[in-house]
Task: structure prediction
Amino acid sequence: MNIKSNVLKVLSGEESDIIPVLSVTQIAIVEAMEKTDVYWPEAHINADMMAILGSSLHELAGLECARIPFCLTVEAEAMGCKVNLGSIERTPQITETPFRTASDIEIPRDFLNKGRIPVVLEAIKRLKEEYGDTLPIIVGITGPFTLTGHLLGVENMLRDMKMRPGDIENAVDNSLDACMDYAEAISQAEPDIICVAEPTAAPELIDPLQFKTIVKPRLEDLANVIRTKKILHICGSSQPIIHDMASIGYDAISVEENVDIVKAKHDLEKGGKVLRVGGKVMSMGGETSSKIVGNISSTQTLFRGSTEDVKEEVKKALNAGVDILAPSCGLAPRSPIANIKAMVDARNEFYDKIQ
Result:
């Protein structure tokens, strides 16, 4: 089986050899850093190290992808924010922003040459040289709504959505321009998949109607400039916005463990039913508009659970009909390699039993 071909078949809606197991979100863990001798924070700013760490769980645990970078602060830093690059087990964090109001937000003329953007683009090149024909290369970017929250502060943005909604929409449009420029530059580097992460759009933070009217149209515009396969990830209890997420134009949507996969499948059907055949959930009466990626708990099962806990949760997700098996969100840095490998092993065991 060609791993890359198998993943791209799933995202294209074609029949695949086996359900892929990968991660569209943060992939670096401390144990892999120790085995590769490549560590945070250096790997955030060095293309060779970023490529090695981004592919480490493929090499060490069989995960079927390489994925870079390791945080959601790349764009904000290039826009002018100050970032603390963190430590071996803490991702980069924004410490200061030059933007006081929504009207202050504008893109620097040399945006694509600032901060770590050139590092990410070079790391894509290194990964393509190493794995271009065999392994899908996934690049994560920040969605425009989340980027606006980084630039203004999430609490300030959410407050101003009530007090000055027009200003916030203009700010999100300016952030969207930056996201589109970055997405186009990444597309030109030709990875296989771009994952847009929009965690600030979770229903725990904004109303589903606000998602539909403010976030969704901008994500549609962003999808239109991405010339690779594309996946949308939104954290939290995204069940109320599943249909909107899937209708934006992304090839797949990535969801966390508190999303009911079977119910999500029902919600995405075009008037059809879900039929269980040989332990797998099949679509009846229409295709879903987007594949579902997920949703093995990152914070509990993969981080704190046993390998048997991982295998049990994988079996549940596969029986529910997940299209691509993956962690529910970014991996906690102290997650053990054994649990990542157990995710791959459980997928293989599942197929062995139904054949």
Remarks:
- The two ends are 16 Å apart (CA to CA).
